[in-house]
Design brief:
With 56 residues, the protein is mainly beta. 0% of the residues lie in helices and 50% in strands. It has a 5-stranded antiparallel β-sheet, with no helix packed on it.
Length: 56
């Protein structure tokens, strides 16, 4: 399974916009906050691996 690193670009209610670290100018990915760690904040770095997000 591929490991992907994201940066939390913004948080809007129940959703967060994530940008891939290796594609900073790419399209943000909208993810439900229920799928993300509870204590995320804007600018936070996340690792996505085995269908789970965790703070790095």
């Amino acid at each position: 399974m591929e490991t992907v690193y994201y940066i939390v670009k913004s948080i809007d209610g129940d959703y967060a916009n994530l940008v891939r670290e290796d594609e900073p100018s790419g399209e943000p990915k909208l993810v439900a906050r229920a799928l993300l760690p509870e204590n995320i904040s804007e600018g936070c770095r996340l690792k996505y691996e085995f269908l789970q997000y965790e703070i790095c």
